[in-house]
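The instructor's notes for this session suggest beginning with a concrete chain rather than abstract definitions. Hand out the sequence below and ask the class to guess, before any prediction is shown, which regions might be ordered.
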Amino acid sequence: MTAAVDRGDLDEAARQGALAGPAVVERALASKVRSTVLAGIVAAPAVEDRAELLPALARLAAGHDRRTAIPAARAARTIASALSKKDLPDDLAPDDLQGWRSSFEQLAFAGTGLIEARVAALETAAALEHAIDPRELGFDLARALGDTDPALRIAALTLVPRPSAVALRAALVTAIEDRDADVALTAAQTLCTDIADDPAGVKAALGGARAQLEALVKTHPNAAESRDAARCLK
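After discussion, reveal the predicted structure:
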């Protein structure tokens, strides 16, 4: 695996990892040699029983080496996404996924982490929750919307299942007043795409934020999000 990474052949590194199995890949992820760690990261989504590698990937994703932390977080996201799209294997229990989900949620909210890794961690937490129950979000939306980095706030909003749960609407309305216009527009888009399913409920939730929404749509008329947000104003 390492030799393949050293010569730039990532497909071969993944193939070798799949042949070697999760135990070998896990040892690679724990290596002190960066190219071996990278080989393990590349191989992780390709091996059988890949979900068992999520804790090792979480540890790497929490690091400060961009060349390993970000790829590790994205490899975990790939694994979690695959789990969310089919029935859980018999050897995986919901409690296992909840433990992994919690670790990635904590990573997403770690303000000292790399933002790219934090966003991927948030997406991983959501995917792991969806593997258990697609109706659930998988992280604390209010906490995510209070994060200092707008990239994480936007990521959180785009992960809200559609139609959004009524319990999440108050947080979405608060985010429409976010100081960052992109965050505010994304929040408005998320809320207002529900208007067809529950027009009265969405408009009631919007309440006094309607004026802020009108100003957003007027200020950013050409933004794709504005077209969806404008549904709340009709």
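Then share the key points. The chain has a mean pLDDT of 93. The chain is about 65% helix and 0% strand.
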